[in-house]
Amino acid sequence: MRIVLGVGGGIAAYKAALLLRLFTEAGHSVTAVPTEAALKFVGKATWEALSGKPVRTDVFEAVETVNHVRLGHEAELVVVAPATADLIARAAGGHADDLLTNTLLMAHCPVLLAPAMHTEMWRNPATQANVALLRERGVHILEPAVGRLTGPDTGPGRLPEPEEIFAAALALVIPQEGASSEEAAHDAADRLSADRALEGLAGSDLVGRRVIVSAGGTREPLDPVRFLGNRSSGKQGAAVARAAVAAGANVTFVAAHIDVPPPVGVDVVRVDSALELREAMLAHAPGADVIVMAAAVADFRPSERLSSKIKKRDDAADPVIALVRNPDILVDLVRRRDNDEPRQLIVGFAAETGDAGGSVLEYGMAKLTRKGCELLVLNEVGADDAGQERVFGQERNSVLILSRDGGGSERVAGSKDEVARAVVRRIAREVAQRTGAAQHGGTSQ
């Protein structure tokens, strides 16, 4: 396959050299088209050695071959990595001031851009508008990775790893090896769904907003060794925090016990018990635009924490553990919000089971009314008919997003990242509606 690899002028250009090698080792014919700025990071000799082809940057080179027209016309795939803020802006504006932008204008094959820039550049409304415009025109744009940038800063803006770009690029033009046409169509639908999910986050109303996300299960100490806990892994809360970062929010991640690493790009606050979680949430809530209570908070805790381990002795009776009720953190957050910050959006999570007294949905709606938050993400927990856990520790999830204002429930199923993106898109819509109501003198409740 004939591939044009465009290279923008960013420090991540060195990763494009690795991407070029992946393409050539897979048997593809690659023409590297760096910008002049890119050559300041990785020289022309490197691109020529890896591609086996001459490297040109200007429309007046190889004029006899009409190079500025031929490259885009003959290409079967165009990949640009890194795509800098400047290059994205020039592509969106239809500029043709060097060989790469001419090639982009001529290309009638799939085009994939892999952005890389500082977080503030990526989140800037100008960049987001350019990205949205290019996507409307059919250009495929990856989300930048989240992590350490050139300096000490951390956030979205890193170039995805070459292997990820390689896989995403070939997925646009080559069905997965060995897959049937039905499977290939299914994979394509999944990719399109993921693209749309990411597009729904980029440039959302969460850019620059302060979002607090709690996750994981609390542990209620009984003695120096034992505690009361729950099955929560923290995966869904971590996925929500990750999606909020991708949407441009400044995220504080309040983590109880979690089985996964905290997402990159968040401020992490560690807690253990329900009382510690309550203290942390109330401390960070002032000034937050959105609060997401995804943590699994123990309803009860031992009435006292013993200073020594409870001994198992044959000559002693079995211990009786007295429990007391933990405070309702979600209700406390709503009460504080109602007094001080009426425009703050609060989202609760609820794990429910149905019983003879009512269905999961009925219990969920009652809980939404009782808690007073704007949205409630409802999980049905417990084992399914095959004896497998439905939610805790699993990679997939199915939820109902319930709204206090009667906007109707929304069922979402998929991986926990897909569920998280749907939740964050719903949050962004709610934030936009509340902001619009406030600007027009309406109620924010």
Write the layout of secondary structure elements.
Layout: E1 2-7, H1 13-25, E2 29-34, H2 44-51, H3 67-74, E3 77-83, H4 85-92, H5 99-106, E4 111-115, H6 119-123, H7 125-136, E5 140-141, E6 145-148, E7 154-158, H8 162-171, H9 181-201, E8 210-215, E9 220-221, E10 227-228, H10 235-246, E11 250-255, E12 267-270, H11 274-284, E13 290-293, E14 300-302, E15 323-325, H12 329-340, E16 345-352, H13 360-371, E17 375-380, E18 396-403, E19 410-415, H14 416-439
Parallel strand pairs: 1-2, 1-3, 3-4, 4-5, 8-11, 8-13, 11-12, 13-16, 16-17
Antiparallel strand pairs: 6-7, 9-10, 14-15, 17-18, 18-19
Helix pairs in contact: 1-2, 1-8, 3-5, 4-7, 9-14, 10-14, 11-12
Sheet/helix structural class? alpha/beta
Question: Ranges with pLDDT <50 over ≥5 residues?
Answer: 175-200, 383-391
Percent helix: 25-40%
Main sheet record? 8 strands, mixed
Please give the oligomerization state of what you see: single chain
| Share of residues in strands | 15-25%
Which strand order does the major sheet show?
A: 12-11-8-13-16-17-18-19
* CATH classification class of the largest domain: Alpha Beta
Total beta strands: 19
CATH architecture of the largest domain: 3-Layer(aba) Sandwich
Can you describe what's shown?
This protein has helices at 13-25, 44-51, 67-74, 85-92, 99-106, 119-123, 125-136, 162-171, 181-201, 235-246, 274-284, 329-340, 360-371, 416-439, and strands at 2-7, 29-34, 77-83, 111-115, 140-141, 145-148, 154-158, 210-215, 220-221, 227-228, 250-255, 267-270, 290-293, 300-302, 323-325, 345-352, 375-380, 396-403, 410-415. A hairpin with a 6-residue loop joins strand 18 (396-403) and strand 19. The chain is elongated, with a radius of gyration of 26 Å. The chain is an alpha/beta fold and 445 residues long. It folds into two domains: 2-201, Flavin prenyltransferase-like (Rossmann fold, 3-Layer(aba) Sandwich), CATH 3.40.50.1950; 210-439, CoaB-like (Rossmann fold, 3-Layer(aba) Sandwich), CATH 3.40.50. Helix 3 crosses helix 5 and helix 4 packs across helix 7. The model is unreliable at 175-200 and 383-391 (pLDDT under 50).
